[in-house]
Write a structure and sequence with these properties.
Bound molecules: S-adenosylmethionine
GO cellular component, one term: cytosol
CATH topology: Rossmann fold
Strand order of the largest sheet: 1-2-4-3
Radius of gyration: 17 Å
GO molecular function: methyltransferase activity
Family: Belongs to the methyltransferase superfamily. METTL21 family.
Number of strands: 4
Organism: Phrynocephalus forsythii
Shape: globular
Keywords: Cytoplasm, Methyltransferase, S-adenosyl-L-methionine, Transferase
Order of helices and strands: HEHEHEE
Number of helices: 3
Length: 114
């Protein structure tokens, strides 16, 4: 393998960091992420405010959030209604065989930014 190929493969390196919704957010770059991916993380209503705060902190206007989830209970839909206060949310896909939804969200452009 040539050196260029090695460099392309080896950089940039992924960094893994533990995150609890709403805690120590100052250790994560505000708006510093291109993508936020979440699989089956919307199900505990008591965590919804912290989860929303975390997404708000991590995302810039350009960050794309992709969330896959089952909407098992009405309360799970409540999270997406909460999200719509800050983000434009769009359902990209529903897989009926697995009862899984995939949502895309991006920060709403605030009127003050227009
Ligand atoms: C049902 S599991 C899904 C795990 C994995 N994404 C998957 O699809 O197999 C829910 C995950 O949400 C995350 N989670 C739940 N509450 C959390 C919280 N308060 N802070 C951080 N992560 C949390 C944990 O990583 C937990 O494993």
């Amino acid at each position: 393998m040539c050196e260029l190929t090695c460099r392309l493969i080896s950089k940039p390196r992924a960094v893994v960091q533990e995150l609890t919704w709403g805690q120590d957010l100052g250790t994560f770059s505000p708006g510093g992420y291109d993508f936020v991916l979440g699989a089956d993380i919307v199900y505990l209503e008591e965590t919804f405010p912290d989860l929303l705060q975390t997404l708000d902190h991590l995302c810039s206007d350009w960050t794309v959030i992709l969330l896959s989830c089952r909407l098992r209970y009405e309360r799970d839909r409540k999270f997406f209604r909460m999200m719509e206060g800050l983000f434009s949310v769009q359902e990209l896909l529903y897989d009926p065989d697995n009862d899984v939804h995939i949502f895309k969200a991006q920060k709403k452009v605030q009127e003050r930014d227009l």
